[in-house]
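Sanity check. The docking grid for magnesium ion depends on where the pocket ends up, so I'm generating a full predicted complex first rather than guessing from homology. Inputs follow.
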Amino acid sequence: MIKAALFDMDGVIYDSMPNQSKAWHDTMTLYGVECQPEDFYMYEGRTGFKTINILFNQSFGRDATEEEKKEIYDKKCARFLELEKTKPMPGILEVLTKVKELGITPVLVTGSGQFSLLDRLNADFPGFFKKELMVTAYDVKIGKPHPEPYLMGLKKAGVEASEAIVIENAPLGVESGKAAGIYTIAVNTGPLPDKVLLESGADCVYHTMFELLEDLERLIQI
Ligand code: MG
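Predicted complex below; grid placement will be based on this.
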């Protein structure tokens, strides 16, 4: 019996990944890090600080300092705000509405600390995400692909892994959901091939929220 649906945010609730990857790329290149916007689809899911550290190690062979991580992450968030306003993922409102109709509690589990999106959740999806049922970059120590964020989501919802489903778009997010022992649905809303999500352990892959919506009732019988 499925009691909770754990939703990732970027690339699932919001169609934010094109702007996120651009904001990351624009910011990191300012610091002399060589990267492409597409690279960030593979890093997606990690906390910002972890992403910065990985890129620093690749480019400069050292960890970023705490000050650098904070400064760069703040700049990334500011750059994201300058870009065209991010819209909700087409079909996500219908999915959330169906989830509620089926008596399932929606829970947010994101590695993001982008206040501009977190603050919009209530306005864009009134009554869907309770504050006490959100896991963000500010709650976790390790972050995806570790199971920590999804385990925390289960705990906040007061359900077992077998009573939940995860909805993810990113390989590292899928890994995190599976490592937490949860049935993990990938909705491939970005440029990566499905194969990458399946290799990360996704139990099934859809391509739009509307495709998922059609199958949702059947999926929760699993
Ligand atoms: Mg995502």
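Relevant for the grid: The beta strands are 4-7, 105-109, 134-135, 164-168, 183-187, 204-206.
Also worth noting: The chain has two domains: 4-16+87-219, 17-82.
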